[in-house]
Amino acid sequence: MKRRTAREKALQALFQIDVSDIAPNDAIEHALDGEKTDAFFEQLVYGVIEHQVQLDEMISGHLVNWKLDRIANVDRAILRLAVYEMVYSDDIPANVSLNEAIELAKRFGDDKAAKFVNGVLSNIKTDIES
Fold this sequence. Notes:
globular, mainly alpha, N-utilizing Substance Protein B Homolog, Chain A
């Protein structure tokens, strides 16, 4: 599975977990839709779940005039996924995670999602790199 596909499927699983409160294994199975699983995909899903509190704190600290629970569910899932990659995946450059998140926002979010995701993640990236 290509990494972009793994990210898309991880986003779908994380979104389902967030809005439906279903078990991660069920969300993963549904997102895979019969496809073979992938280590990167599972790392993303389980990593975000494991570190969600820290990820949410980091994201919340970079929101201007927003609260995390008021952000669109898909945007919140994209931010969690990208911040997880930026913080916990040493083999992925932060710019790649940021760009992939913007592409996910363009594909799955509304018209303003990509700009919003870019702004939040750019600030987080700056903090991580400093």
